[in-house]
Amino acid sequence: MSVADGFDPDGVKCVVWDLDGTLWDEIAVESPTDDLPAPRPAILAAIDDLAARGVLSSIASRSAPSVLDRLDAVPGLRARFLAPQVSWQDKSESLRRIAEELGIAVEALVLVDDSPYERAEVEALLPGVRTLDPADVPALLAAFEGREITPESRARVDRYRTEEARRAEGARFRGSREEFLRWCDMRLTVGAATADELPRALELAARTHRLNSSGLTPDRLRELAAADGHELYTARMTDRFGDYGIIGAALVDRGPDTPGVRDGAGTASATWAVPLLALSCRVAGRGAAAAFLFRLMERAREAGAEEFRVTLRPTDANLEMRILLRQAGLRRTDAAAPGPADASGAPVARTAPAEAAVLGRTLGGDLPGPPAWLHVSDREDTEA
User: 112, 263, 316, 356: which has the highest count of C-beta atoms within 10 A?
Assistant: First the structure.
């Protein structure tokens, strides 16, 4: 399948490499010694280039599991790969396992394999996965040229390595899942985005799928974030293992004539509308998405809003987001959420696709709180 054939680099989170004939020329199990074949310098350079852009690498090889043991003995090479799979199982099954271990969608994988048979097997059983011949690697790299690299993307591979440590510690932990999460000492901070956080927010809009409410494009997000009555919020998270970085972004629309929350001047809008809520899949299952949403709802009520709405565009991938919004008490409303106006004062259509729905709830009474194991606080808001 050609790289140029509808390829979207924003949808690629991990490139999976075959070994024999791809990462190196020889067949590892036929080596007369325990030494692995020498990797192709161009492939190693490609892996490092992708890592610098925040794209992970893994391995799927139909070979003896002992090859992975030999790979473990070469730390400088092994460290380049997350969740490697070396066994006699089908490549499609290896890719499923990689996606599961990394916590990403299978469709976010790209397989590079010299075997037309293996590529065909994956394409047949995992039609959402793009497969490439090693000769296509230069074109793969070219597809990422000119794309902005954020601090989070540069640190992404290391953060996934930290995630492997979290999983290993969780497997050893003697206690319940909730007790482990409490022990992790997770802390979420929420605040208005600064100018240097905007690129990461745009990246979340482009690259998240499981926890993305509307699929608002980065270009439209940038445009709306600069519009009157809109504010962009970000969420950061840390735990005892390290810093997750910026893991969430939310665009809040308070209407074109609504003053900023920070200065407290004027009359608050009756409704806070959220055209986009997006979070990294790295925090799925830890309560961070719920905590971010609930804190936004609290801030809306503190600002005097009476209703909170989120634009939702259901997809095959964002079931977790749909469940979260339902659990937060948001229900579909037929009323149009307030939107920006043009120079003449006429309403401008909302930016979500036609099939999107608006979910809302009133902000009276008790609001849901964050999970007991997650500490949530506000960052001091500063002008971007």
Answer: 112
